[in-house]
Amino acid sequence: MKGGAKVVVVPPKHDGVFIAKAKEDALCAKNMVAGESVYGEKRVSVQNEDASKVEYRVWNPFRSKLAAAVLGGVDNIWIAPGTRVLYLGAASGTTVSHVSDIVGPTGLVYAVEFSHRSGRDLVNMAKKRTNVIPIIEDARHPAKYRMLVGMVDVIFSDVAQPDQANCIDSTQAAEAVFASEVEKLKADQFKPSEQSRRLSFAVADAAESEVEEEAECSDTPKEVEEEAECSDTPKEAECPDHLPEEEEAECPDAAAEEDEASSLEA
C-alpha cells in the first residue's frame, strides 16, 4: 500500500468487510465518500476488470473494538450492507465511519454520543455521509432520544460507564471473571451467542499507556529529593539545654521556669 504497491482485495468473510493483501495486509471497507479520509487513515484504490476503480479505507484494529473483533475471529458482527444500526457511544465517529461504509447507502447508522466536544467531530463527519444520523444525547437514557430513532437491526454499545472503573475481582483468573459476567447477562434474559477476546490489541494499548505514564513520572525523583532535603528543617526553634548563662535569658521558657522555681523556694 506504500509507493503504489500492487494490492489485491480478498472477498470478505463478513459482508462489506475486506482484506487488502499487500506487503502489509490490512482490514478495509469500501469508501462511501471516495477521496475523503475521516481521521487520516490510509486509502487503497483498486481497479476492477471493467477498468473502474473502487476506493477502500483501511480499518485500524488498534483504534476500533469492532475491527479488533473481526480480526480476532468473531463469527458474525451482524452488520452488513443495508443494515440499520444503533451505535451507542459514537465518540468522534472513527468506528462509525467504517460502519457507515459497511452498511452502504441502503443502510443507516444512528450514532449517539454524549460529549459535545466529540459530538462536533461526529456531526462534521456525518455532513458528508448521508447514512449517518448523529444524536448528541446520553446513550444511557434512551427515553431522551427514542423519538429520533426508528426500528433497527443491530445495537452496538461502546458506552463508557462510571462503574467500569470498579475492579470486579483481581484475585480470580480472567476466564472466571468473564464467565461470571456472562451469567449476569443471562440472568437479565440476554442470550450471549459468542465471546471474543482482543488481548493482542489490548496488550499493545497497555504498552503505549505504560510508556506515557513513565514519561509523566520521570520528574518525580527530583521532587522527592527536594522534599527530603527540606524535611530536616525545624518548624520552630528549640531552646537547647547547654546554652551558656548569658544566652539562657534569651530563652523565655527557661526564664519562666527559673522564676517559678524561685517563687516556690520563697
Automatic annotation (TrEMBL):
Work out whether the entry's keyword set contains DNA repair.
Answer: no
Instruction: Write down the SMART domains for this protein, in alphabetical order.
Output: Fibrillarin
Q: Which domain of life is it from?
A: Eukaryota
Q: Where is the composition biased (Basic and acidic residues)?
A: 232-243
* A GO term for molecular function: rRNA methyltransferase activity
Chief localisation class: nucleus
Enumerate the subcellular locations listed in this protein's record, separating them with semicolons: Nucleus, Nucleolus
GO biological process: one example = box C/D sno(s)RNA 3'-end processing
Q: Which residues form a coiled coil?
A: none
Record's compositionally biased regions (Acidic residues): 207-217, 244-266
Q: Which PANTHER family match?
A: RRNA 2'-O-METHYLTRANSFERASE FIBRILLARIN 1-RELATED (PTHR10335:SF0), RRNA 2-O-METHYLTRANSFERASE FIBRILLARIN (PTHR10335)
The identity of this protein, by name, is rRNA 2'-O-methyltransferase fibrillarin 1
